[in-house]
Automatic annotation (TrEMBL):
Pfam families: Fra10Ac1. Residues 158-254 are annotated as: Disordered. This is Protein FRA10AC1. One of its GO terms (molecular function) is phosphatase activity. PANTHER family: ACID PHOSPHATASE-RELATED (PTHR11567), PROTEIN FRA10AC1 (PTHR11567:SF25). Residues 193-254 have a biased composition (Basic and acidic residues). It comes from Acanthamoeba castellanii (strain ATCC 30010 / Neff).
C-alpha cells in the first residue's frame, strides 16, 4: 500500500473501533468560519499517561489506529493565502473532515487549493489559543509549488528589493570610479576592471549553479528516504511502544 492507502486504512480502523461519536477534538456544532475554528478547544499534545489506562485494554490494531488519528491533529495546519501579497497568511488547525480526506497532508494545505502532486512540507510557527492560553507550535504546512510561491512571496520580494538596492549602490560607485580613471588617463586599469567584473559574474553564476544542483540532490535524497517504508526483521534491539508506532507511521508524515 502507498502512503495514502495506509492513511485511509488507519482512518477506517479508527472509525470502526471508536465510532464517530468518540472521535477526539471534533466540534459539537457546524463550523461557519475560520474564526470559529480557531476558537475550538483542541488538545493536540498528549502523553503516554493520558492513554495508558485505555491502551492496556486495547488490541494492537486499535492502539495503532488511535495513535495515528490523534497525531494527525498536531502535525499539519491549513493556510489561507488569499492576502499573500500583503504578507498576511492565516493559519488554523485541520477539522475532522480534512483530517479524514488528507487535506493538508496528501492534498495541498492552502484552503483554496486541491493539488495533490509535488507537495513539499514547510515548517511554520503557528500561534493559537487553547484553554484560554496563547501558545506557539512548529507545525507542517504542505503546499504545491504555486502555493509555496505565495507563502514565500513577501520574503522573496524583500530579498529582491534589498538586492536591487545593493546593486544600485555598487553601480553608482563603479560609475564614479570609471569617470575618475578615465579622467586620469588610466584606460588600461579600466579595461582590467571590466575583465575582473566579467570574471566575478562568471564565478557567481557557477556558484549559484552548484548550489542549485546540491539543493536538488538533497531534495531527491530526502524524497527517496521519505518514501521508504519497510520493517527491518533483523533488528534485535528492543523497541518501546512509541518507536514501534514510528516504524508503522514512516512515510505518512512527510
Amino acid at each position: 500500500m502507498n502512503a495514502y492507502e495506509r492513511h485511509q486504512r488507519y482512518i477506517r480502523d479508527y472509525v470502526l473501533y471508536y465510532g464517530r461519536g468518540k472521535l477526539p477534538a471534533v466540534p459539537q456544532k457546524p463550523t461557519k468560519s475560520d474564526d470559529d475554528i480557531l476558537k475550538q478547544q483542541y488538545r493536540f499534545i498528549r502523553t503516554e499517561e493520558d492513554d495508558r489506562a485505555d491502551d492496556s485494554r486495547e488490541a494492537w490494531e486499535k492502539r495503532l489506529a488511535r495513535r495515528y488519528y490523534e497525531r494527525l491533529y498536531r502535525e499539519y495546519c491549513i493556510a489561507d493565502l488569499t492576502r499573500y501579497r500583503e504578507g498576511q497568511v492565516g493559519m488554523r488547525w485541520r477539522v475532522e473532515k480534512e483530517v479524514i480526506i488528507g487535506k493538508g497532508q496528501f492534498i495541498c494545505g492552502n484552503k483554496h487549493c486541491e493539488a495533490k502532486e509535488d507537495l513539499k512540507s514547510y515548517e511554520v510557527n503557528f500561534q493559537y489559543a487553547e484553554a484560554g492560553e496563547t501558545k506557539n507550535a512548529l507545525v507542517k504546512l504542505r503546499l504545491c509549488p504555486p502555493c509555496a510561491y505565495k507563502l514565500n512571496y513577501k520574503k522573496e520580494q524583500q530579498k529582491k528589493k534589498e538586492e536591487k538596492k545593493r546593486k544600485r549602490k555598487v553601480d553608482k560607485e563603479e560609475r564614479k570610479l570609471r569617470k575618475k580613471m578615465k579622467k586620469e588617463g588610466r584606460e588600461d586599469e579600466l579595461d582590467e576592471l571590466e575583465r575582473k567584473k566579467a570574471r566575478e559574474a562568471e564565478e557567481l553564476a557557477e556558484q549559484e549553479r552548484i548550489e542549485r544542483e546540491e539543493k536538488e540532490k538533497a531534495e531527491r535524497e530526502a524524497e527517496k528516504a521519505k518514501n521508504v517504508w519497510k520493517k527491518d526483521a533483523q533488528v534485535e534491539q528492543t523497541k518501546n511502544r512509541s518507536e514501534e508506532f514510528e516504524d508503522y507511521f514512516r512515510g505518512l508524515f512527510p
